[in-house]
Amino acid sequence: QSYCHRLQHDMYFLTSTSRLNEQVIDKIVLQLNRVYPQILTNEEAEKFRNPKASLHTRLSDLLKHLQKKGDRHCQEFYRALQINSEQLFNDLPSRKILKTPDPTEIDTDKEQCMLNDRGPVFFLACFSMAAGLALFWYCCNSETKVIGRARRILGFSPIIIGRHVRNICMLYLEDISRN
């Protein structure tokens, strides 16, 4: 949406119920006149700062003038409004439309399942460590006679446990069974 369309949409909001006071309008006009790129000439700035005209008329004329000049001029008005009246800038109807999410759009922040800040490798390392300790405790427990069952499980698990790890576990189980 272009800045001209946004300004046209926000015009009623800005001009109604004296949302902008005279000081803020003067600051905006001065910024549009003095800051690069110069949007308003000196004559135009004096016209929009004329205290003889009503505030509503000056603001309406300024907004119409900026819309005739083009999108860049309207963009600079929004920048000046943001600098001089942040609260009003955030309350603009066009800003609220931009902030409102599309109800059909998927919110990726809510859809992501994050285990922790360290990432999946840390999770896998912790899980492997826990599984290894559980297996070690299960096999080394002197009260249970599960060495034969453990040997069968480890013997048929070349895919689950790497070959080298399986060989080390088998040697350990053989040592335990001899003692």
Question: Helices, strands, pairings?
Answer:
Layout: H1 3-15, H2 22-34, H3 42-48, H4 55-69, H5 71-84, H6 86-91, H7 93-99, H8 108-111, H9 120-140, H10 147-155, H11 163-178
Helix pairs in contact: 1-4, 2-3, 2-5, 4-5, 10-11
What are the defining features of this structure?
179 residues, mainly alpha, Death Domain, Fas, rod-shaped, endoplasmic reticulum, mitochondrion, DEATH-like_dom_sf, CARD_BinCARD
Condensed summary:
It holds the Pfam family CARD. One of its GO terms (cellular component) is mitochondrial membrane. It is built from eleven helices and no strands.
Give the CA-based shape.
rod-shaped
At the fourth level of CATH, the homologous superfamily of the domain at 3-97 is Death Domain, Fas
Work out the helix count.
Answer: 11
Radius of gyration: 36 Å
- Name given to the CATH architecture of the domain at 3-97: Orthogonal Bundle
Per DSSP E runs of 2 or more residues, the count of β-strands stands at: 0
- According to CATH, what is the class of the domain at 3-97? Mainly Alpha
